[in-house]
Task: inverse folding
């Protein structure tokens, strides 16, 4: 396995991040996995078959997926994603609150 393969495009890493974080269910990830043909181009056949061999309906599937994915995404990269997402979410929340405040005070 490559260690923290930088050739995996950001949009694919995003799916990995969302799944590990819980923003995307294992079922949704599995559906994406079988429908997205781009992923096959970035994994060797052995790695791809290992990934699709994970039974996403069994307990422990998320752990098995993380064990696989950590070969392609680094822990620091995942932590950065979580922080960026948290900041983005809080910024959106604050913006919505501020807009609501302005709109209600002007009426």
Result:
């Amino acid at each position: 396995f490559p260690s923290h393969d930088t050739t995996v495009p950001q949009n694919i890493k995003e799916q990995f991040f969302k799944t590990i974080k819980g923003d995307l269910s294992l079922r949704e990830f599995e559906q994406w996995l079988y429908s997205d043909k781009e992923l096959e181009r970035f994994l060797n056949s052995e790695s791809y078959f290992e990934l699709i061999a994970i039974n996403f309906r069994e307990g422990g599937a998320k752990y098995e997926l993380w064990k696989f994915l950590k070969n392609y995404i680094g822990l620091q990269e995942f932590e950065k994603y979580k922080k960026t997402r948290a900041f983005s979410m809080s910024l959106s929340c604050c913006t919505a609150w501020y807009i609501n405040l302005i709109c209600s005070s002007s009426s």
Remarks:
- The CA atoms of residues 27 and 42 lie 22 Å apart.
- The first helix runs from residue 10 to 21.
- The helical segments are 10-21, 26-35, 38-42, 45-52, 61-69, 75-106.
- The two ends are 60 Å apart (CA to CA).
